[in-house]
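request received
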Amino acid sequence: MEAKVEDRGGIFANHRQPTRIQAVNREIILEAALEVFAIHGFRGSTVDQIAAKAEMSKPNLLYYFRRKQDIYRAVLEHTLADWLAPLAAIDPAGDPIEELRRYITLKLDMSAKRPAASRLFANEVLAGAPVIGDFLETRLRELVHEKAGVIRRWVSESRLAPVDPVHLIFMIWAATQHYADFDVQIRAVLGSQVDKPGFREQTAQAVLSIVLNGIRPRM
Amino acid sequence: MEAKVEDRGGIFANHRQPTRIQAVNREIILEAALEVFAIHGFRGSTVDQIAAKAEMSKPNLLYYFRRKQDIYRAVLEHTLADWLAPLAAIDPAGDPIEELRRYITLKLDMSAKRPAASRLFANEVLAGAPVIGDFLETRLRELVHEKAGVIRRWVSESRLAPVDPVHLIFMIWAATQHYADFDVQIRAVLGSQVDKPGFREQTAQAVLSIVLNGIRPRM
DNA sequence: CTCCGATTTTACCAAATAGTCAAGAATCCG
DNA sequence: CGGATTCTTGACTATTTGGTAAAATCGGAG
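response:
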């Protein structure tokens, strides 16, 4: 049979090669949507806002993504892999301190370079993770347990101080994403200092120093 | 003259003693609103949702708070002081490690007992802190700088390892509030374990161990 | 150039939502 | 009790919002 499934459904969710215009406009929409959803979450954002930010009429935007939910899902998928990559990159064969130093640095870099991505996830999780809930319970869970196993081995080999690996991962997420998610608060406290050139290095240095050495004085 | 300013404006924003019914219903509304705003933020929440959760008709709810914004502001004010109290309680005359241990423990307790308050602030800050922006730039900023001064002194007295005090405060906020704000994610990773009796102690132990001692192995 | 599908726009609609109003019900106080 | 006040509700309005329909325009292959 092998029906030639020239399946209807417009340009959406089909297998046709996207035109150049489609590729460009979808990208524009996803960027605009990321900014909007990152600030107000799914329910608090409007299609009009996204259309305005994309400099596109609302019906035109809905030509590329039929429904608000479709945009939201696309933005999340578009960002999820990148966001998780640094954790996946922890090398079981590497030096524990160096691997964690690199992980923390990478996460801080991402918070600085793509804060909207972090805020998007924060909003999604705050709302109860209605869309990425499954992902969290499967792939994220597996990845965390895998890397926790690596850290646990490092501890058992006395290459790290005794520490609960999962809580360590949580703390690294918290500390690094905080700089993206609570940027407004950090700016309120630190002012323009945040935009000075050395700030990111200073932040990385502080976070690394605490996580690696703690704050208890060493004699 | 001394006009008897029996100022109009119903029961709102006036100086009259609230009736018992008013006190009770306002409290019910604030609790319901906290739950709702904590999940979806200001824009993503609806008055109907709040009314439903408060088991009250919408017009009745709006009899107590004329506008959605008024409820939101009231909830924020109602929660702000409590949320900041632990930081204010850090005692410059106390033992540094003990003071910070107590601070972290208190913040973790609040995250566990009043997660909605944490999520409410997270949503507000993610949205750009449109309501509490002023507060952040004044009272919070002052408080942080004051306590940062205390920590800085502790460091200079070698009672703490060298650490940037403001980043230390940020990290403590991040690590503790993470357990409230990202509860769904933590449950996805850890499952029912989160509800077991010892979990809070285990969390506190892990966070304290990392912040106080770091993860670098000590010989 | 010309045609045809791809893209964009104009004009809509229905549902959701914030907020109003006036009348009815409950409560308080003398 | 009885009247004044407080509280509650049903019915309503104006606006916002997600989404649709169809006509107009564009752009690229032949």
